[in-house]
Amino acid sequence: MTATTIHFVRHGKVYNPDHLLYERLPDFHLSDVGRRMAEATGAYIAASPQMNTVSAVYSSPLDRTRETAGAILAALNPVREARGQEPLTLTTDERVIEAGNEFRGKRIGHGEGALWRNGNWKLVANLWKPSWGESYAHIAARVGDFAREKVRQHPGEQIIVVSHESPIWSFRHLLETGHAEHWMFLRHTALASITSITFDCETGRVMSITYVDPAAGIQ
Predict the structure, then answer these.
(1) A single GO CC term, please (predicted)?
(2) 215 and 193 in contact (C-beta within 8 Å)?
(3) Strand order in the sheet with 56-59
(4) CATH number listed for the domain at residues 3-212
(5) What is the mean pLDDT of the chain?
(6) CB atoms inside a 10 Å sphere around CB 93
(7) Residue among 148, 150, 156 nearest 2 (CA)
(8) Phi/psi class of residue 23: alpha, beta or left (left: φ > 0; alpha: ψ in -120 to 50)?
(9) Please, which residues bridge with residue 210 across strands?
(10) Which element (helix H / strand E) includes 66?
């Protein structure tokens, strides 16, 4: 049986002093803590005999994910060089980008945020037909399309994909429950965490899903 593992990494903490929903807006970068988170996860991957054999690194095109992927590559490539392997470079893919959200640029869940004003909370009450933007089903479908393609392209290999909380969890939830819809407050996807999904290359069946949080102690 040939298996491919995709290690989905959530980006590190973002510098966001105004507590805005940054969504897909440009120029939202990792904070100092976020950089340390990314470096901790990169060190974890580089030290793992399993993960440091990955054959490719992908990410969402947004600043925070590319910066997190850069920290991972900075830790991983010296290990590859010591083995006589060529360094890996980053490839971006729109299918693992952050979820679209009509609240972008607004304050959410901090003080008198937009979510609580003018009855806006009603927009998030129906998980199957959300009014705030992109549906969970659509998010999971595009991530699933990406995953199936990469399983075909990397049979028997492992890859790293740096993405965002909603795409990672929506796809995982779909695989585990049969539907992508979920309550956002119940996600289990910490900053700079790794959700590893292993697929049978012949059938596409999910063989295992594991989770680790290497940056949990970073302050």
Answers:
(1) cytoplasm
(2) yes
(3) 90-92, 56-59, 158-163, 3-10, 194-200, 206-212
(4) 3.40.50.1240
(5) 90
(6) 17
(7) 156
(8) left
(9) 196
(10) helix 63-82
Q: What is the pLDDT of residues 5-23, one digit of tens each?
A: 999 999 999 999 888 888 8
Compute φ and ψ for 143, nearest 5 degrees. Answer: -70, -40
The residue assigned the tokens 């970068």 is 29
DSSP E strand stretches across the chain: 3-10, 56-59, 90-92, 158-163, 194-200, 206-212
Q: Residue 12: name the closest of 182, 194, 183, 211 by CA.
A: 194
8 Å CB contact between 205 and 171: no
Write down the pLDDT at residue 163: 98
Rounded distance, CA 31 to CA 37, Å? 10
Strand locations in 31-154 (E): 56-59, 90-92
Q: Is 106 helix (H, G, I), strand (E, B) or coil?
A: coil
CA-to-CA distance for 147 and 201, rounded, in angstroms? 11
Structure tokens at 19: 């507590």
Question: Which amino acid is residue 177, in one-letter code?
Answer: T
Radius of gyration of the chain, Cα coordinates, nearest whole angstrom: 17
Instruction: Enumerate the β-bridge partners of residue 3.
Output: 200
Give the three-class secondary structure for 172: helix
3-state helix, strand, coil in the chain (%, to 5): 40, 20, 40
- In this prediction the pTM is 0.90
Task: Write the single-letter amino acid at 184.
Answer: M
